[in-house]
Amino acid sequence: MRAFHWLLAVAFAGTAATADAQSVADFYKDKQIKLVISSAVGGGYDAYARTISRYWGKHLPGNPVIVPQNMPGAGGVKAGNFLYGAAPKDGLTVGALQNTVPFEPLLGNDKALFDSTKFNWLGSPSQEIGVLTVWHTVPVNTIEDAKTHQLILGASGANSTPAFYARVLQAVFDIKIKLIVGYPGQTEALLGTERGENEGYPSAFWSSLKVVKPDWIKDKKIKFIVQYGLAPTPELKDVPFALDLIKSPEDKQLMEVASAQLALGRPILTPPDVPADRVKILRDSLWATFKDKAYLADCAKQRLECDAPVTGDQMQDILKRSYGAPKAVLARLRDIYEAGSK
What we know:
The protein is α/β, with parallel strands linked by helices.
């Protein structure tokens, strides 16, 4: 009799597990998934998110429709706050954030009302590499040269990403930089370089520079002084990698945390407290999308960099290590960040 009851219990457990798996698989059937995009229509983040949305649904059980919805504001913090606090936690709302957003709480932004380590990070279609570029006539060819020649670099604002990275590079390499701020964006700042208004740009993304200024690269109108991120790109094999040049352990840690956002690329997430089985389905299906030949062809057609995806687990680890950096390093990074407001 005991054996019979034991077999019955095992059979029931197996049936329940199968039913749970089936219910998860059926959850997305005839549903819509809202993809909240933290930037405005027409930009790079928007292009990546909308491209992904066209293919993601076919890799999800039940083939739900992915509906993009732009929610710009406060440099992406508005969408981050929504996804953390107000968004449903059922796996039917996902987000595509600027890669700076997950680090806003770390840098002391009191308007960022979220804990980035509690989001469920799903993956990213790419990683980014930042490059410090100067016009070909500027008498600077190396970081060492920039210690004696003051670089006049363009940026959109004192609190912008380019300005932040300019201050980071200045801190870890002790180079001389003067910022010319007020450009609407990278396009206008690069035009300013061509016109002689400034000598270069502190944080051009290699992926976008190849698209917007391929002739500059081909004709060697710009020089690449240093590349930075968490790993160098083989495409810039002759350009020094920042972490290889830095001698001080404290400076190296500072650069690693500052560069972490580049490693997140174009991050995609779902709110905290979404059931783990749905998070797994979202992660697995997004990764399958990143390998989809039609998706990759679409990326290539748009000249989007989609060949270096990042897993959700890797993103979680990057954020965990960044938020767990030594207090002295984080305090120094916050000072660099806040210097733009002074």
